[in-house]
Amino acid sequence: MVDTPSNEQLINGLTKLLTVEKRASDVHVGLAQKGGIGRVFGGQVLAQALQAAQSSVPETKSAHSLHAYFLRGGREGIPIEYRIERDFDGRSFANRRVIASQENEDGTSTPILNLTASFQVPEEGLSHEDAPMPDVEPPETLKSDMEVRQSMADAMGDKLTEAHRALMLRPRPIEMRTIDKLHWMNSEPREPRAHTWFRTAAPVPGDVDTPALHRALITYASDYTLLGTSALPHGLSWMRGELVGASLDHTVWFHREARADEWLLYVTDAPWSGGGRGFNRGRIFNQGGDLIASVAQEGMMRRRKGK
Length: 307
Description:
- The protein is α+β, with helices and mostly antiparallel strands.
- It has a single domain (7-121, 144-303), classed as Acyl-CoA thioesterase, double hotdog domain (Porin, Beta Barrel).
- The protein is built from 5 helices and 13 strands.
- Strands 1, 2, 3, 4, 5, 6, 7, 8, 9, 10, 11, 12 and 13 form a 13-stranded antiparallel beta sheet that branches.
- A hairpin with a 5-residue loop joins strand 5 (93-103) and strand 6 (109-120).
């Protein structure tokens, strides 16, 4: 019987996963996820690439945006190399490009993601927020998504293979509590909008507690639920094997510093899908109602053919 890791072990593992190691000047390596199977989670590659970029910029400048393209699916079990290009260093702003690659069996290297990040010295400026945080149920009144998954797995019984059950119920370092029904919770077409609270499963350890790490953790979590928003009007789900999909690009704009171990509300909508793609947007608020980040992503979304 496999021991279930504690929440503290989960978050310690995640912070270690997102702490890239310097191997040479402007070359870093992100370790593989322990026990990972199949394709690397896109949020992991995004967060590790951001961490590599952040390591090359003075602490006086903070990341305010990142723009990334997923080129190929990364393979679990293999470290990822991050090479940094220092394109610009100004008094107020700096810019970095990062290429993420994995080594092949023949020794060649294959790019899986490219990312550009912009940094700025914090300053005061004109300020406004166009749309307030939606009035939704607080996280304390909601079941966790893991509780919902467990109930669904119990209801499905023998219809679930052991491999699928293990994937569905694997412990996650990000705790999520959904107000609406996500694509895997429901087969009825509904409007392409969703609201989900999220935070790390345990407080971030004090020895690694930095604003840069919290930005990386928020980037990691921002890849959850987003692409699935464009599936909601169609009543289809990847979990039920009805769709084939992959993230194509991902953008995050950081508006305020925020802690990833405190509840954040992820408000997503999908204004368009077509041509085998779905376009999704996200806004992330703290519990005080402040907009702390905006997100956008386009992904491949195709109906699976055959059984």
